[in-house]
Specification:
The protein is globular and about 60 Å long. It is built from 13 helices and 9 strands. By secondary structure, it is an alpha/beta fold. It folds into 2 domains: 164 residues, NAD(P)-binding Rossmann-like Domain (Rossmann fold, 3-Layer(aba) Sandwich); 120 residues, Orthogonal Bundle (N-(1-d-carboxylethyl)-l-norvaline Dehydrogenase, domain 2), CATH 1.10.1040. Bound molecules: NADP nicotinamide-adenine-dinucleotide phosphate. NADP nicotinamide-adenine-dinucleotide phosphate binds next to α4, β7, α6 and α11.
Length: 293
């Protein structure tokens, strides 16, 4: 199958690499807002480069998108030179960004008018999972469309869960993941701030707690980075704020309060506002806001 990949950032770049390495695509067409990034990767993995999302869709059977936020996804699908300009039966698209259920329903509706198919398939597992090809993929859409995409997803994910036949089911599941992950990160920050203040051996704390009932992905992967004050992303604060806002809006629409979500969103926003560019740091940088709370 001819596969297009749009959005070659922290996640998209390793995902496209794994796809290329699998050999399942007879041709791979890359597109990125900053074209140089696509050209550098294409030269390395033997792919082609397209100028616009429309040009990708003209040459591909399957198009994958992995861009930051709602306006970016809308630009890629609905904007000038976007995918929807050339939607047709036989074209199958999947957006793997985190953008909420409303956005992907709009995209799916626009594609359906042209006969093209769509599956929302956001992911969890971070850049570590993207590099290892072990992401958890949360798919929403028709079973037949998911099965057509499964060989593609298998090159990127260790777990592919069909969350529902309705487009948006994957996004709703992903926002559950974001609520739980963010509150767990708040807990990791508080635990490490407490350990630091108490003056215990921090390496021993990391090892012992990580092996017990309080162990978690965030504890094992982000806890050591907090201790080393390594704030490089991984997952950017700006993207986490976007996700938690999407979750909060959806929660409010359902009449839910979710006080922990509000608390942790406030800590991420304080981290972003502490200095210009702090939205580009990894989510582990939130420990400073928790320490100063
Ligand atoms: P990122 O590093 O900011 O990369 C986004 C990429 O999309 C960049 O290469 C950017 O191009 C490109 N892009 C933006 N607008 C575009 C457009 N209109 N057309 C073509 N390309 C465009 O973001 P990321 O960390 O990979 O995250 C991508 C998505 O995955 C987000 O929704 C995020 O929430 C989600 N996610 C991230 C993680 C993680 O750990 N990072 C984990 C799970 C899910 P430029 O080169 O011009 O900037």
């Amino acid at each position: 199958m001819r596969v297009g990949f749009i959005g070659l950032g922290l996640m998209g770049e390793p995902m496209a690499r794994n796809l290329a390495g699998s050999g399942i695509a007879s041709s791979l067409i890359l597109q990125n807002r900053t074209r140089a990034k696509a050209e550098a990767l294409a030269a390395e993995i033997g792919a082609m480069v397209a100028q616009t999302p429309r040009a990708v869709a003209e040459q591909a059977d399957v198009v994958i998108t992995m861009v930051p936020d709602v306006p970016d996804v809308e630009q890629v699908y609905l904007g000038k030179d976007g995918i929807c300009e050339v939607g047709h039966p036989g074209l199958l698209c999947t957006d793997m960004s985190t953008v909420g259920a409303d956005c992907v329903r709009r995209i799916a509706g626009a594609l359906a008018a042209s006969g093209a198919g769509f599956v929302d398939a956001p992911v969890s597992g971070g850049t570590i999972g993207a590099q290892a090809g072990t992401l958890s993929i949360m798919a929403g859409g028709l079973t037949g469309s998911l099965e057509a995409l499964r060989p593609v997803f298998q090159t990127m994910g260790g777990k592919i869960v069909h969350c529902g036949e309705a487009v948006g089911s994957g996004q709703t599941t992903k926002l559950v993941n974001q609520i739980v992950g963010a509150l767990n990160l708040e807990a990791v920050c508080e635990g490490l701030v407490y350990a630091g203040a108490a003056g215990v051996d921090i390496e021993a704390v990391l090892e012992a707690v990580g092996a017990g009932a309080a162990g978690s992905w965030a504890w094992s992967n982000l806890g050591p980075r907090m201790v080393r004050a390594d704030n490089a992303p991984g997952f950017k604060i700006a993207h986490q704020i976007k996700d938690l806002r999407l979750a909060l809006e959806a929660a409010e629409a359902m009449g839910l309060s979710l006080p922990g979500l509000r608390l942790v969103l406030g800590h991420f926003e304080q981290t972003r506002d502490a200095a210009i560019g702090n939205g580009e740091l990894g989510t582990q940088a939130m420990i400073a806001a928790v320490k100063n709370a």
